[in-house]
Batch of 2 targets.
Target 1
Amino acid sequence: MQSCSLTPSSTMERGVMLAVCLLCWSCSVCVVTAIKRADMFSYGTLSGDLILAEGDDETSRVLSLPKPLFFYGSLFSQLYVATNGIISAQDLPMEKQYVDDGFPTDFPVVAPFLADIDTSGGRGQIYYRVTETPSVLNRVAQEVHRGFPDAKFTPTHVVVATWENVAAYEEQTRTTGPSDKVNTFQAVIGYDETDSYVLFLYPEDGLNYFGTRPKESYNVEIELPARVGFSRGEVTYLIFSRTEGPHYSVTSDEQSVKNLYQVGNTGIPGVWLFHTGNRYSFDNIVPASTGGLLDTPPTGGHSLSLDSTTPEYGEFEEYPDTFDSDNQEEEDDDYPHTRGDPEFQPAPAGGNHHSESLQPASPDAPSSHSEDSGHQLSYGSEDVPLTSEPRYSSEPAGRQYAPPNPPERVPEGDAQRTPKQQPQVPLEVVDVYPSHRNEPPLSPGGHVVSVEEDDVDFDTGVIQYTTENKETCARFQQQCSQNAFCSDYATGFCCHCRPGFYGNGRHCLPDGAPQRVSGKVSGTVTVGSTPVELNNIDLHAYIVVGDGRAYTAISQVPEPVGWALMPLAPIGELFGWLFALELPNSQAGFKITGAEFTRHAEVIFYPGNQRLSIIQTGRGLDDHNHLTVDTVVSGNVPFMPPGAEITMEPFKETYQYYPSVATSSSVREFSVVSAEQGSESFSFQLKQNITYRDCQHDNRAAVLETLQIIMERVFVMYVKEERILRYALTNKISPVGVDPTAPELVNPCYAGNHDCDTTAQCIPLEGQAFQCRCATGYRGDGHNCYDIDECAEGLSSCGAHSQCVNLPGSHRCQCQSGYEFGFDGRTCVDIDECSSSPCHTSARCINGLGSFLCQCQPGFYGDGFYCSQTEGQTVRPRSQCEQHRDSLQSGMEQSDRPSPGAFIPQCDSDGRYQPLQCHGSTGHCWCVDSRGQERTGTRTPPGTAPKDCDRPGEPERPKTHCEHHRDGVQTTSPEGYPIVGAYVPQCDANGQYTPLQCHSSTGHCWCVDSRGQERADTRTSPGSPQTDCHKPDEPERPKTHCEHHRERAQTTSPEGYPIVGAYVPQCDADGQYTSLQCHGSTGHCWCVDGRGQERSGTRTPPGIPSVDCDKPDEPVRPQTYCEQHRDSVQTTSPEGYPIEGVFVPQCDSNGQYSSQQCHGSTGHCWCVDVRGQERSGTRTPPGTPPVDCDKPDEPVRPTTYCEHHRDNIQTTSPEGYPIEGVFVPQCDSNGQYTPQQCHSSTGHCWCVDGRGQERAGTRTTPGTPSVDCDRPVEPERPKTHCEHHRDSTQTTSPEGYPIVGAHVPQCDANGQYTPLQCHGSTGHCWCVDSRGQERDGTRTPPETQPKDCDRPDEPERPKTDCEHHRLRAQATSQEGYPIVGVYVPQCDADGQYLPLQCHSSTGHCWCVDRRGQERTGSRTPPGTQPKDCNRPDEPVRPETQCEHHRDSVQTTSPEGYPIVGAYLPQCDADGQYLPRQCHGSTGHCWCVDGRGEERSGTRTPPGTPSVDCDRPVPVAPTQRPESVCERWRTSLIEHYGGKPDAQQYVPQCEPDGQFSPVQCYGETTYCWCVDQDGREVPGTRSHDVVKPACLPSVAPPTVRPLPRPDVTPPTNTDITLLYAQGQKIGALPLNGTRLDATRSKTLLTLHGSIVVGIAYDCKENQVYWTDLSARTINRASMATGAEPEILINTNLVSPEGLAVDVKRRLMFWVDSNPDMIESANLDGSGRRTLFDTDLVNPRAIIVVSSTGTLYWTDWNREAPKIESSSVDGQNRRVVVSEGIGLPNALTYDSSARQVCWADAGTKRLECVSPDGSGRRVVHPSLNYPFSMVYYRNHFYYTDWRRDGVIAVSKDSSQITDEYLPDQRSHLYGIAIATTHCLSGSH
């Protein structure tokens, strides 16, 4: 057997890595040990770590990152470390919301060991830090480069989190004592500007428990395995919606957790490395590829075959079970998760339709899939089988030996028997199954089982075999599934599936599990007269077996045939029949056919008689238990108009069953709706038979004669952009004539509306009761199931020399390398490799168990695969030395650069290693043995004589501890470069540590003992004399407390650099604290006692004589308040560095406050009283004499107004630093304002009156003489207009800072305006009149001569209209700034309008009449010749519609500013609309008709050729309404005030109104891709100049009339449920309390809307709703043809829940963006805000009219609650705040007078009385409720997982009914509409 390795090549596929590592675990020669604790990254307080508080559910304070890191594709700047083994990028919710749940989490998580951990009572510590320490950065860089050799990564920061000896949570009531099991593990996050990587480290013996018990079910003896991996958390799209982000799991069960420290993916057991984020593009986590095992493949995405062209169902918007984020956790696990990187691709499923690159070629390979599946993937010399069930297979071409002749598979046991009459099959289309190769198959006994043509009954497809040998289980049981048992009967054997599985015995699948199908579609289809070739395009299907839903998708279907194949739902009906929901006394097709069958179908279309043949062949099950079906279509189909919609009504079809054949025939009708033809009806006839192998030996088998398939829903569509054809069907199978709506069949199991998990079976009980039971191979409560790992739990049936591979719901066995399945198909037997002569002709082959050996014959030498004679050898193979040397040299050549420092071995002429090897760069030399291994003790440093390597070595002694230590130090990098700075211990000739050790890089030397441990006090720094290490040590005494303290003080960094500022205690010769201690950096000294504690009152600052510490202490008195104050001030950081700027109070020798206190940093001094409080008026600034604080205070007078003013000014920050720029008033000794006040920062001075108010005219600027404020004030005259104007101008901010740019008018000494005014900032000057009004024509720009304002004006005439107009269009803002772009009219000398007016900014010119009104037809654009305005007008004709339209457009604001972005229609000379209109701002152009209406399909974006508008085009019947994209765009532009900034996001829409595939933030390069609903496509964000390549995913709009937004109410209904679903409001009538799906219809279609909240007014029969897209509240009457009415359309951001108070005629709503609750009258008037505080995420709201009470929910994740108040906003209180998670839905049970809510977090429906009493659970396990109403003891809620309306009985607490609309998308609000108001309506 070849030896195994734990470091497979980095390019090995993941599937092979998995098999190789599993194989290595079973090798006895492999020894796997984890890293030691000492190998972890350093941690603890000495490493600068913070410590998390003890407890069961603690979260650290925010850990702010110096620079943000990328996690997945998002940027985060802070982290939190939690007790429960995780690091998060946002503050964590309560642990019960996540600790017992699997991935994904709702918040971003890095989880090295997510479990319920408890550190209470000192059971472990949790450390964390962010560091830039070079040694840590270097180590992370080395780990990343080893795991990702091509990574260009240099970390700038590292986050280290360590959980040391932490225990699992244990309930205190348990009788046993606390467990002593503790875990230690570490997570390290390294990142730079673009990437992040994460290391998980699990040391040896670090994991002693592997999961924790859930708190809520602690009495049940279950344990949840720890979760290890990553989760992005929820991500948002379209403002309102949230969905799961990507996630990745490293472990899946307890065994995989146990493996964490035994294996790794870096080549080092216990060390796991992952690439976790990138700035530009990142889909999901990428593991390292150096070696080791990944326990589970990456999650968060679906996989495809390597050549697949079909996307998986994650993209199906219409199919929620495969698209909905809530379902991904259940159903995504069934997919093999892969990524595009070939390094990490798992081995694909076997089968001839998969990638040929992984299918070894073999000329003898059988063609059937079941035999293909036995192929093995060859890698190197080891073969890892990929088979799912035991099968003989031909060997890959890579193997150089032949296996024994394998027997072909024979049909299931057919002994010779008397032929009996078979029923005739009434079908023309019949095929013989199976269509295998023509060679006669071999029987295991060597008998040929011949099949003659006469033995085949072509009418039935049954093959009659003739043989004399009876076939038994003993010989043929390998034909049975490994999940089946074999039974012998009189005429042969049969296979039967074991309990818990279903199928035909040859193929068995787990009961209840969802099923996947894959395959290829090929053939030629003629559409009309055009043949279209389909060349092996992909088909994928997904079937939810529990309720019979089958989804099929065919990809890469060319457009003409894609539309034409839409009616071909029979392609997908096959899967509906195979896995239909079984009603009593029936069985689905797979139980009869298994996975191998052939279906022939013929479809004849009417009226055109086109014929199409469909052949579908079941090829078996692949490695993942997925069914493989290939489809061939050929023939003609009718043409379908592009954009057509196909609808099919539900139908029933009868299947007739014969031995080995099932047949059916039916006629179907379908409708085609297209823009060209409207609605048309067609039909086709379907005839089909399905042939298969059945077993006739079991007489007990019941013969089914007829069954009926009930297709309850059929949905077909073709997506043009993606070229995907989709079919969705809901299927049930029953005996013929059974009515599925019969009372006994309305059980949810038969109706398909149960809430069992998709991997669970629904077991019907009596009446409406049912039970959910997890499918075979799954475990859980039936509502939530997870896969059982049979391999990890020892439940597999795999024998010796085999490996177990877990599958969803099952497992498979595969033989180890060197073994193959034996005759029974279950036992692994050794392969005799020698039978294929793999060795050289001059060698002999020796077979062994699982391996073989080649040995050259005597006289030859070589490795057995190549042997040659010693003499006459011309070419010998390269030796090991030459291969070693050449591999290094070729690596240098491939890198195209020299590799200085790399070691190249030297070989002699025979290719052997030269005995003496030297390193060309370092100069070291050493001797090697024949294998190139260094001989111990032979290495010599540069400059010394090398050893004589030819001298025979002494008998080799074992390596000593020193030699092991020395040889284990890594001195060269993996590329062979020397590593500088590594410490290498020195050993003597005997291998012992030399007594003196020195570090060659730092120069430090020290003495060591025999174990290599440093001897205390022997370390010397470079340049100082070394210690004599041979001098005997004094008898060592135990270290003292001082010496321990001194050693703990970290004075050097891990790299050996000194740390400045650290305090190191001083010890005397006996190890005791010296009585005087001094800080080397700060200079402070103090006395200490024997324990090293500072003696009070002994500290002296630098430069002051120290206290005599030997003087005996006075009797110690208690510390005074001053001393406590002083000692509590933190003057040094935790690291011992001094903190500058801190105020430390000074105490006298008695401990009392010194009367004078001074701040050491600012220099201020002041007097204090005995309590240390500052005495008013005693503070002096630095440089002024301090106040005499010993002078007795004058009798204290009350504080004056000035002193109050002064003392209230904050001049220092909370830390004691001075605040610059603050104005502090100055008071005299009597506390009055000093007459002159000056601002110390600005230099302005002014006089003030007794109240401190500035005296007018006294302010002087810095550098000018101050006013004499003591000069008696003239009798104060009233302020003039100029002075009022000047003083009202704000020149300083509230903080006293000057405001730059404000115009301050200048007044003369008498307070009048100076004739010349100038603006200090702009430099403009102008003359003013006595009122300060600017005089016309006097303004001069800066640097020009101002006007002479004293020159008398001409006699002033009254201002004309033009001059008034010109004045109003002021060229300056209110603050005096000039405004650019304003239109200012031009007046002549007489003040009249100039005939020609021009806009200086836009360049347009036009003629005006005497009133300044524009003359029609005179406007000219810039660059064209203006009109001659003096030419008399033609006779005026009336204005046309175009001219009215143009003139009514507001192009300037009321202030005269131009309005940018307004569309101005263009009219021709006759006033008619120009045929081509263009928008001056956006650049779009389009054609219009005579009324100016846009012609459909003519709009072109800027930069593209315009349509020829003179060419006639068909006109659509109606104009399309605004799309969601366009309405959202308009809404945001309005939100931005009409002028979005360059970096603000505005949706980009296509001409047809759909979202552009690429969306960007304004004009930036920050772009991403979106789907058809505008939701971001994960992983597509890019900051690059090159925008991401996004594919459109929206079909173009069909050109047909769209429904008007008017009401179509249901007829003859008393009670109707109204539900909101995106762009429509649906109506669902009730029949009693049952949902009447047959009468459901669309009440109101609202294109471009997102309807969320909905309410009903029973008095006026009106429906009200909130529109999230339009940001409006609307209503409409429930009368036929009624149209919507907008009630409120301002100041709404995200309106959600809505309620109507019928009694008070009020409505209430919540707005979840500003977090408000508002109310208004029902017509929108009287709007008021009720609450805008203490709300975080309000959603649902209801009003109880009878009591006048409001109730609402707030799903704040930190503190969710339900509150209430009166309708006028009084008496607000919390009703419920405990035990809720995401309370989405809210209603009122009027009969019980209770408030009820449905919670998407706890999954419960609960009710409680308004006073908080009587709380009870109505239903414990909902899916994902959003909104809810109550009616007649039933709750009706909208569900986001089922995308439907669910009914729950209050009495039985059971789900009683379900309605799933045909359009599968989220439902939002729900309300109940009645023909009359119900009692207790709310």
Target 2
Amino acid sequence: MVFCLWVSLVLQVFEIAEIVDQMSPWGMLRIPRPLIMIRAFRIYFRFELPRTRITNILKRSGEQIWSVSIFLLFFLLLYGILGVQMFGTFTYHCVTDDTQPGNVTWNNLAIPDTHCSRELEEGYQCPPGFKCMDLEDLGLSRQELGYSGFNEIGTSIFTVYEAASQEGWVFLMYRAIDSFPRWRSYFYFITLIFFLAWLVKNVFIAVIIETFAEIRVQFQQMWGSRSSTTSTATTQMFHEDAAGGWQLVAVDVNKPQGRAPACLQKMMRSSVFHMFILSMVAVDVIVAASNYYKGENFKRQYDEFYLAEVAFTVLFDLEALLKIWCLGFTGYISSSLHKFELLLVIGTTLHIYPDLYHSQFTYFQVLRVVRLIKISPALEDFVYKIFGPGKKLGSLVVFTASLLIVMSAISLQMFCFVEELDRFTTFPRAFMSMFQILTQEGWVDVMDQTLNAVGHMWAPVVAIYFILYHLFATLILLSLFVAVILDNLELDEDLKKLKQLKQSEANADTKEKLPLRLRIFEKFPNRPQMVKISKLPSDFTVPKIRESFMKQFIDRQQQDTSCLLRRLPSASSSSCDHSKRSAIEENKYIDQKLRKSVFSIRARNLLEKETAINKILRACTRQRMLSGSFEGQPAKERSILSVQHHIRQERRSLRHGSNSQRISRGKSLETLTQDHSNTVRYRNAQREDSEIKMIQEKKEQAEMKRKVQEEELRENHPYFDKPLFIVGREHRFRNFCRVVVRARFNASKTDPVTGAVKNTKYHQLYDLLGLVTYLDWVMIIVTICSCISMMFESPFRRVMHAPTLQIAEYVFVIFMSIELNLKIMADGLFFTPTAVIRDFGGVMDIFIYLVSLIFLCWMPQNVPAKSGAQLLMVLRCLRPLRIFKLVPQMRKVVRELFSGFKEIFLVSILLLTLMLVFASFGVQLFAGKLAKCNDPHIISREDCHGIFRINVSVSKNLNLKLRPGEKKPGFWVPRVWANPRNFNFDNVGNAMLALFEVLSLKGWVEVRDVIIHRVGPIHGIYIHVFVFLGCMIGLTLFVGVVIANFNENKGTALLTVDQRRWEDLKSRLKIAQPLHLPPRPDNDGFRAKMYDITQHPFFKRTIAVLVLAQSVLLSVKWDAADPVTVPLATMSVVFTFIFVLEWYSGQDYKHLNVGEVTMKIIAMSPSGFWQSRRNRYDLLVTSLGVIWVILHFALLNAYTYMMGACVIVFRFFSICGKHVTLKMLLLTVVVSMYKSFFIIVGMFLLLLCYAFAGVVLFGTVKYGENINRHANFSSAGKAITVLFRIVTGEDWNKIMHDCMVQPPFCTPDNSTYWKTDCGNYAGALMYFCSFYVIIAYIMLNLLVAIIVENFSLFYSTEEDQLLSYNDLRHFQIIWNMVDDKREGVIPTFRVKFLLRLLRGRLEVDLDKDKLLFKHMCYEMERLHNGGDVTFHDVLSMLSYRSVDIRKSLQLEELLAREQLEYTIEEEVAKQTIRMWLKKCLKRIRAKQQQSCSIIHSLRESQQQELSRFLNPPSIETTQPSEDMNAINQDNSAQPETSSQQQLLSPTLSDRGGYRQDSADTGKPQRKIGQWCLPSSPKPRSHPGSSVNLRSGGCLTVKTVGCKMNPMSDAASCGSEVKKWWTRQLTVESDESGEDLLDI
């Protein structure tokens, strides 16, 4: 910067020494000098944040802005290519027949200059005497033809950007319509405006808003809090109000008291005094607004307005002196409001001085209207909310002003030396030019004039300079104002939850009362319906009984019988007694029941179950914490599922107070602190739960009370719920009408067995069919057909004189009559719960029907202008609005838009106040001064007479120079002294209209030039200040308020950060789809290598570069007559073959696993490849490319070139899929289009209504400045194009003034409106202003709101996301592994495998979170009844489990989710207990079987031992055969009844051998006569014995005994064995009995 200053100083010395000319190009060396103001920004803002944090914020915002700029460049390149191929050059013009090449002048062109088509069947054909010629062939240069057009890709992109700025685009479209087919021009430019101007460019606003939200958090300390409304010198004290209540009032404790008496101080503080002053301010404003221009001869200094101003000035001066006397001067100036009042007092006092009257001091007089803001507290709060924290808005205003100064200085140094360019000769001119570009009004003219002046060489550089400045100023700077206003309207996070609860309470209160149209029955006496029992045998007269009571008696008869049969006291005291209650007692019972708690027995039982389950879970959690299972974990990223699961468990444990009652002795300080925090959290959780439960109870009570009230009215008033008080409630005809009215297509197909909803193939079509009832579908079709019929009407083909158009009118009225009669008979007209006229939609239906019926019956043949018949025809044009009533989504859009219209109304008041201030000032300064003679050479009014020759503007695009002796075309006109045609400041009404047009940024340049030229350059500040306030603050305030109002009505404005992230996550998950990608081939062969190549990022980038290279081939138009086209097409064929090879090698080997390549190409629809939509698109484009190559070499004509260009454009879209940023931003635009579909349809319906009305009002208006053969209201189609132009703001005010033409400038006709060419002044004013406000200010800003919402959905950072893109990608990969059929659904049992495969933040650790795993598995089984689950079902379950539902979910969704999780936990606990009991039973049965088998084996062994002792010693007992073991195994449980059985106990050596062998195999232990078997026994051999364990628990013992004397101690041994075995049998039988009792 120092170097630039030295260079500037040296250059200044050279200019002073006259070495260098002051107006030379060397002045461009001063360009960097204005950038020194950047240092002022650093001093002004004084950033207190660390430099790294500021760098990170700027880096992040810069990356986002760069990404959106790339996205904008993508669309500019796309439409640039389309423009080149669809249009090409606009060089064909209508010229005279005698035009010679190289000698084209202004007089050779048509007036006005008209483009033409060289084809006879399309475009515009020149009139006789003219011919269609190419001016470039006639010798005109590129500079003379202009720089806008579609000649090549560079010029085309330049032209597309101009059109996307909505400045001058309509004239480009008119040129294209004259030169090419009409449909091509409409398609290209309308889609360009919709996508580029309304969708893509608004993404910049979304970027700035998201970035500014983060910056606001970081710079909160610098900007200050926005919630403080009282100063620091005030305190709050209790004061008693007039009603006897107490309220907190802010009192300034440091405010000194004045010397005025107490009575005056009391009077000054009284509300009467304030209202008197404000009423005087209002009267002063009215008097000032009544001022008008009275003529030049009228003396203006001492008229009645001047005297009134003197009186009001004295009054307000006395008010200021009184306040100073009462408060003291120091106390008076301590208030900001008093400072403003003192400034007004001083300024208005100087203003009434005669020499200063009607001077710049008039601003102080008109600024008194600002004091009226104090009248409305809502308006005052709104103004403070917007402008209270003024440092943010003030900093932005200073930054904008500094930017204008810097850019004006740079532009001055760049273009001050350019000849024939007077826009940058001085700094004020440069400032006005750069300010004009900032407002976008006529910025194309500024750029075109500069381009023509600098020449063809420097034109591209200058164009890039202006485009970059325009891009920054209009897309970034204005978006900053919107971001600041939205941030000021944003609520604090701690208030959003409270507002949500209050809103829920308000909704509950509104649902409690019936509508007023139904409550009117309460004013009448009760007359319940009575019935007479005639078939009852009795000697007495039976009175009449209420019909409702008899119905209840009949319904409960069966219940009473069951009560008597059961004879249960509880039942007889509850249901039987309840059935015998009378109607009055029943009502009392219901009222008492409503006053009690809403928790029923079922709810209490559920609460007890939940308490028990939470107690068990809490104990388990406490045990795990005490055991230290949570400690010593590896330092890795913990699963968010596990984290949220433990958070919920801890919250539920706190809710039931388990941790709040554990304070005991001997605890450390840390433990006590933790217990205290747990107690606080427990109390907060209890308070939050009580608030939620209270709201839930209130809602339930409100619904019950509403139902009770309705039932009481239905019972006590016989005419209640009777259509037209005639048709009965249950009449057959009414039931038939109900069936007809409510019949609709059932879109959901359910399984009759499981009850699950089936996923049909065409579910979207089915949902569309089930959107409305069959009757509404019929009426929608009839209404559309009627609107189509109305489009054929015109002033020259009227419905009164066209029988074919009358048929559609009759059909509409007949069908609507049938519809209304059916709905009235089914639901009633007005005094029924579901009446036809229950909202504004019903009123509109009846109004449209009556208007159509009256018009059909009347059918006037003559319709005078401005008559009742014409008004009836205008009201008939509201017929398309019927679709708003018939389609529920359209009604929802209207309700969300207009339900909270308070803020929009307040903004309108602020803008009207701003306009009134500047209008009053303009009347007092410019009234009568703007009139001038139309001859610019005449200055005085006395000389303004006679005629003069005026030149005609032939063309705005051509830059022809007059040749010596040549004159421009013109004609002679009379001189007239008059105001400008479209505006004046002679009275407040005209001034308000002019400022309203200026507020829309249309026509303000003309107002500025007229004021500067006719009043003085200093007064140009007036219009610049108004445009700055109106554009930068007023219109951006309107945009911000519309967005905030829409979000508030939709429910997103009150969402906290966590709730908004959750809503974004749900929307993101709906869009997510399975990958449908097969895994990599297992082997390392050719297919695997090709798979690796196609998956490499370098391969994708190479393909993207090839796509761009092929798209560059469309830089010039492919014309069959142009020799350049053939090589370009040949190169495109080469690229096509490359893409074909890429598709075969990349896509087939990438997406297919089995089968030969030839079979895949022949089949063309393999399942793995066909599942991906992107692959289908690539396949389609590749197939079209192959077809084009064949046709190209076969035909080689214009159609094949067109097809080749289309194929390249289609392939150009595939770049979005290869670039992550472009893909996300394109998804933002696509989803915004999908969500704004009904808003777009609503805009079209409004536009259609205004088009029909415009044909009636202005169909025959004469052509004027902007009403011409392209733009007029002669038919509905042309009216739609004109209104679409007005939506973009393209000269809408000039079209309005053309439609205001009045005699003597037109020919009136009082008989019929179609015979006059005059306009309608009042009708045009209301028509155009209302249309522009509704469409441009409200409806278009809704698109901005939707784009802002969806931008945060797709383009949030990893820190802001609950589930990152990596988590979603990982889940898609795992799903792709589990879903082997690529159908998008899997069986429920596979969810377990899917959850086990998840890793990272979605991982479920079965060792730690086994209970969570059970919960998730059971949730999928419960919600889907064991059927198939989809990709989104599992992803939705994981998303719910991965967030803190208390913070992220809203009230209704939170209640439903918590109830579901409680139920799941209860059912899982039941299943766990049930499975545990089953395992216990199974274990007990296994023990019984084991004991029985052991007893059987012991008996076998004892029998063998007995036989061994009884037989000779040489005999050896061997192991039984397998067959015998099998028999013994089968009969192990049966008692042995053999008479030869003998019981014998094993010897000591045998037991020891058995134990030794069993110890070797599995170490069985004997407990009270029971053998414990090893878990996995295996046969082994031992010298003494061997034990073989087989299936079934059979045990076989092989013993080799010792030889001993059988005769010694035989008797004693036998007796001991018998005693021991008897004891063993006793013990075994006792244990078996205990086991059976345990079971």
